UniProtKB/TrEMBL annotation:
This is ATP-binding cassette domain-containing protein. Belongs to the ABC transporter superfamily. The keyword Ribosomal protein does not apply. It comes from the Bacteria. Its main location: membrane. It is found in: Cell membrane. Gene3D superfamilies: P-loop containing nucleotide triphosphate hydrolases (3.40.50.300). Residues 4-235 form the ABC transporter domain. GO terms for cellular component: ATP-binding cassette (ABC) transporter complex. SMART domains: AAA (SM00382). Keywords: ATP-binding, Cell membrane, Membrane, Nucleotide-binding, Translocase, Transport. GO terms for molecular function: ATP binding; ATP hydrolysis activity; ATPase-coupled transmembrane transporter activity.
Length: 268
């Protein structure tokens, strides 16, 4: 049974729907990207998934638990961890170790298990040497890894990245992409983004536009339709546009997003 099921979900903040008749199912494990321009509805849908917004129209179930069942919300939220765009908004303690430990402690996790989770999370995010550091002394990229460590310590089965990691440099981003690939072996990863460069390692892309899902498929299927992406308000990279012109000549390219992708294609 799929771990996430949404059926005919709509939502409005006032006049007019920001989500309209959205339905999808996501199995475990998988790495899924919700791609869409600002205002497309992707973040609103995610905030419905974790109960930050009230579900009034349609149905959403997480591991078989309905979001309309108020008694199930606590258990549902234990299944979901969210990494937001602004890491400073998630820190609750000035000391890194204490901040990462805060989540499992508040779920009444055993003290030894808390220590184990914190140490593992800091090791996995490359921050094990910083455990006694004040968060305010960390760089922007280190703060983003710190908030990820805090979420990982909760051991969620669904891990959501909402426009996260904008502060990482290219080297840190490559390391993180490799790490995310290992994480998806035993959980659902949801990446919420407007940037097609963040989609390359995904198993599946769900494209949002004007509150609806307009496409749902593999990166190979979605990223090669550059016209559809532009119509959805997605900025298409120059290498992707060049690859689109090559395909018009009858040459298969596969998904091309970055300069490295294009160079690999041209030298193949």
């Amino acid at each position: 049974m799929p771990q996430i099921v949404a059926e005919d979900v709509s939502f409005s903040y006032g006049d007019g729907d920001v989500l309209s008749h959205v339905s999808l199912a996501i199995d475990h494990p998988s790495f899924v990207v919700f791609l869409g321009a600002n205002g497309s509805g992707k973040s609103t849908f995610v905030h419905l998934l974790d109960g930050l917004l009230p579900l009034k129209r349609g149905e959403i179930a997480i591991n078989g638990m309905s979001l309309k069942d108020r008694n199930a919300l606590y258990d549902i939220r234990k299944e979901i961890g969210i990494v937001f765009q602004d890491p400073d908004s998630q820190f609750v303690s000035p000391l890194l170790y204490s901040d990462v430990a805060f989540g499992p402690e508040n779920y009444n996790v055993d003290e030894k298990e808390v220590e184990k989770r914190v140490d593992e999370s800091l090791l996995l995010t490359g921050l094990e040497a910083y455990k006694e550091r004040l968060i305010q002394t960390l760089s922007g990229g280190e703060k983003e890894r710190a908030q990820l460590a805090g979420v990982l310590a909760l051991d969620p089965s669904i891990l959501i990245f909402d426009e996260a990691f904008s502060m990482l440099d290219s080297n840190e981003e490559r390391k993180l992409r490799s790490y995310l690939s290992s994480l998806r072996e035993n959980r659902i990863l949801l990446m919420i983004t407007h940037d097609i460069r963040a989609t390359l390692d995904a198993d599946r892309i769900v494209l949002f536009s004007d509150g609806r899902i307009i496409a749902d498929g593999t990166p190979s299927e979605i990223l090669q339709d550059t016209e559809m992406l532009r119509e959805a308000g997605i900025r298409v990279t120059l290498p992707a546009m060049i690859a689109a012109e090559i395909r018009k000549l009858g040459i298969e390219t596969g998904p091309v997003v970055t300069k490295d992708d294009l160079e690999a294609l041209l030298w193949s």
